[in-house]
User: What shape does this take?
Amino acid sequence: MPVRDGDAPRVVVVDDSALLREGVARLLADAGFVIVSTHADTQGLLAHLTGTRPDLLVIDIRMPPTHTTEGLQAALAVRRDLPGTAVLVLSQHVETRLAVDLIADRSDGVGYLLKDRIADLSEFIEAAHRLCRGGSAIDPHVVSRLLGRERRNNPLTRLTEREREVLAHMAEGRSNQAIATALTLTERTVEAHVRNLFTKLDLAPEADDHRRVRAVLLHLQSIDA
Assistant: This one.
């Protein structure tokens, strides 16, 4: 359930780096989020989240003890078992297969940001808020890597270069107005590109509010690792 206007989003932060963990927690707390807890590993995390039901989990992919995919596995479990909790993955690397696994099933409340590319803290806070409202936040570099890993018959090959640019901005959770500003286009032109995207990607009209993001996520499922 997305956070209602006026409610302070409740957050759990998980990272084995104490400096980063506490830094992210302090940043979010200063922005009005309620920090439920912070953790240095994923042991017992799902049980804790089930009991506290936070609005957002912020977690690194590589966590103890092996520093491989413990964080991702925890994120996937939360996506599966706690659909009311949004997940924001922070990583040092673009892990394309892991990113596809994370965002393939549902488009709502999921983010993948690269630690070293978070240059604007206000954008990070805005992304956290967007996730709590049921939106998405995917780093443009991650989107670029994902969209570049095409295979034969991938529906993305039907898109023009401009439509692919619009699609990448859509995956970041941007509105038509924000996309128009970024690409120096009119909002009406962006709306036309979005309609063309839906047609070319065989996305029939539906009531799903996240259909925009599905324009990216549905075909990310067909991307090879």
Remarks:
- The radius of gyration is 17 Å.
- The first helix runs from residue 18 to 30.
- The mean pLDDT is 82.
